[in-house]
Each structure stands twice: as C-alpha cells, then as structure tokens.
Amino acid sequence: MAQQIADRRDVDFVLHELLHVEELSEHEIFAEFNKKTVDLIIAEARNLAIKEILPTQIDSDREGAHFDAGKVTVPESFHRVWELFKEGEWLAMIEDPKWGGQGMPRAVALAASDYMNGANFAFMMYPGLTHGAGKLVESFGTEQQKELFLKKMYTGEWTGTMLLTEPEAGSDVGALSASAVKNEDGTYTIAGNKIFISSGEHDLAKNIIHPVLARIEGAPDGTAGISLFIVPKIWVNEDGSLGEPNDVVCTGVEEKMGIHGSATCSLSLGSKGKCRGMLLGEENKGRLPAPVRPTCMPSIMPASGFRVGIC
Ligand SMILES: Cc1cc2nc3c(=O)[nH]c(=O)nc-3n(C[C@H](O)[C@H](O)[C@H](O)COP(=O)(O)OP(=O)(O)OC[C@H]3O[C@@H](n4cnc5c(N)ncnc54)[C@H](O)[C@@H]3O)c2cc1C
C-alpha cells in the first residue's frame, strides 16, 4: 500500500501551480533551483522519508530515548538515518553553502521537510533544534564563534539545543535563576538547572552546543537582565579542537505522550562549579526594545487636522 505521509499532488500543486517556485531561479542567488532540480530535491526527500525515516517510527515510539546514569541513548535505528541525513545535507537546506547549507529557497526546503516531519517527528527534533541553535550563532555570534561552531552544526557533526526553561520559569522566562559570572579570560561561569530540554543529551553526535539563557550577576530582574551563552557539552578550544568535558550533567529524561524518541532532558549546569560558557551577542538583551508603534489607523488629529498615517 502506498504510504502517504504528505500528499505528492498537494506538494506539487503548492510548489508549482500556486507558488511557481521555478520562477525563483530567475534570481541569481537561486539560479540552480530550476523546476528539474526542485523536483529532484522533493523526490529525494520523499524517498529518504518513506524508505529510511518512516521505519524508525516503531523504535522511536516503543524504545524511545533511554536514560542511564547521565547518558542518553537514542534508538539504534536513528544512527543510520542520522548519517544519511548528514550525507544528504538536509539539516540546513536554506542556509549559506559557506557554512554547510544548500542555499535552497525556503519554500522548497519546507516541502522537503514536510515529508520528513511526517515520517518521524521525534527524530526530526534533533536536526530541527540543531538548525535553530546554529541560526542563533549565525545571527549573533562573532566571526570567531561562527568559525568554531557553525559549519559543524549545520552539517550535523555536532548538534544543538536551546536552554530556556527552568522549574520556576516556563512561559515567564524572565523568572529564570540560572546565573553567569564573568571570568578573567572573558568566559563566564554558568550555574543553574534547566528542564524540558529537547535533544539535551544523546549519543548521535560527538558534541552538543547549548545556547543557554542566564542572568549575569548584578543584571536587572526580569527579561531585561537575561543574556545568552554558548555552553558546549565538550569545550571547544580556540583552534577548533575539543577540550575538556564541560560541567553539564543530564539528570533525567521526561516521560511524555508521543515523541518518545526525542530526548527531553533535565540538565544541571555547574553542579561542580565548572560550567563554562561564552557570551553570544550582547549582555542583558533579553528584552527587545519597545516596538515603535506604527500609526496605522487612518486617523485625523482633530486639533491639527493632520492625517498621521494610512496602511
Ligand atoms: C515536548 C517539549 C519539549 C520542550 N523543549 C524545550 C526546549 O528544548 N528548551 C526549553 O527551554 N524548553 C522546552 N520546553 C519547555 C516549554 O518551552 C515550556 O513548557 C513552556 O515555556 C511553558 O512553560 P511551562 O511548561 O512551565 O508552563 P507554564 O508557564 O507553567 O504554563 C502552564 C499553563 O499556564 C498558561 N499560562 C502561563 N502564563 C500565563 C499568563 N500570563 N496568562 C495566561 N495563561 C498563562 C500557559 O499557557 C499554560 O497553559 C519543552 C516542552 C515540551 C512539552
């Protein structure tokens, strides 16, 4: 029986008849993504999803991610698919080839990943989180940080996470208590406990790069005093080589409905006082500046009779 994880006709309709994605190839940046190439990408994605990713769904659900004394193992079948994922360069399809991406139009990448997400969403959490964490490094990192981390993350050699949530800080992330203290060498000593961390620990990759929200000592309360840090599971030296394991300990994996194969971890940072991080972006930028309110409503100011804006 044909396996329908995403309807081929729907995908073709949206890409070609609705969006006319092939017209993007008229732009220099997408010149190689003509209709033939787009169709090839979609066919390959569908093939990988149905033949390789979909069969891991059973192990993913029944075995799930397994926690034992600080280590987390994913189902064995994930390892083969992870290698195929890396070989096919599927992790950062839309990103700059300079950093290990494929420079693909987002619409095409979304169609390709729709097949893969439909095949095993729990597995897809690992590349998904990695791509997001890489994007943080790309957007806010220094040139040195990009050189150290980005390519390894976008190619799946290392994976990534996001460490926001704490036992007392979920939706209200400004209530977090993870702390950061600046060291003489410019790094920060990080301490705190994070929960519900997707892909927080696993055995798919040699290193895991954790973007961590924490408050530098003396910073304001609430979101205004939050800063972002790169905390590698294994420290990365200035020459790119791996250093000492960092003081990041996985204390458990959540049991939850569905997505059993995705390791949702609790992590303890700095329980031995030795968790090191490097600042990503600027200090205390957790709160965005107040939005400049557009004067969108067509309005006449009575006193002056001046029309302030229409949109
Ligand atoms: C499968 C899974 C994976 C996750 N992965 C990650 C991850 O990788 N990294 C990470 O940092 N976190 C992760 N999280 C955590 C997620 O970000 C939090 O669950 C989320 O921020 C909500 O926080 P909470 O669970 O503490 O719920 P609470 O904040 O306690 O909210 C509970 C309920 O109260 C409601 N509520 C909260 N505040 C208000 C308000 N002011 N007004 C009205 N209603 C309100 C919420 O909508 C919700 O229904 C994950 C969670 C899950 C379930």
Describe the protein's architecture and organization:
There is one protein chain. The protein is α+β, with helices and mostly antiparallel strands and 311 residues long. The chain has two domains: 8-63 and 71-144, Acyl-CoA dehydrogenase/oxidase, N-terminal domain (Butyryl-Coa Dehydrogenase, subunit A, domain 1, Orthogonal Bundle), CATH 1.10.540.10; 159-279, Butyryl-CoA Dehydrogenase, subunit A, domain 2 (Beta Barrel). Helix content is 31%, strand content 21%. The protein contains seven helices and 14 strands. The strands form four sheets. It has a five-stranded mixed barrel. Strands 1-2 form a two-stranded antiparallel ribbon. A two-stranded antiparallel ribbon has the order 8-9. Strand 8 (234-236) and strand 9 (242-245) form a beta hairpin. The radius of gyration is 22 Å and the shape is globular. The structure holds flavin-adenine dinucleotide (FAD). Flavin-adenine dinucleotide (FAD) binds at residues 161-165, 170-171, 196-198, 256, 264.
